[in-house]
Amino acid sequence: MRNLLLATKAELIVALCGSFSGDGSCGPLCREAHSLVQLHRRRRSQPLSCSEIDGRRAEIVACIDEWVTRAAPCRNGSARLHPESVGMLIDRMAAAAARVLDALERDGPAGTETHAAWVRLAELEIQYGDLVAEVTDGRRRLV
Fold it and tell me: Which terminal residue of the chain has fewer beta carbons within 10 Å of its beta carbon, N or C?
């Protein structure tokens, strides 16, 4: 069943890896995820701007969490609380996607570093998919 509130893991990966059209088809999570990737990439190329970039990332994470709290309220009071916010998980996914994109530029698609970066992003994609399924099924709550 498609959760109409949270982006699917496929939609999120597309947005993270640079094919985000901004048409709103997968909601604000994709738009914000795409922005987080750009910030992670900028952070690596502009180390003197780290504090400003990290501040902006924190704002985006807070916006994601605020939106998710409003959009996906828990209806099952006995559902287990997830230890990490959706915003924090998406920020980790964005960091992994930035590593993939950087590795692709440096080493190409067959590079060892590129492969390792894709593996890490795939692990996080699975975590996100599991979280969405648990929230949708009422087994997990976010707040």
Answer: N
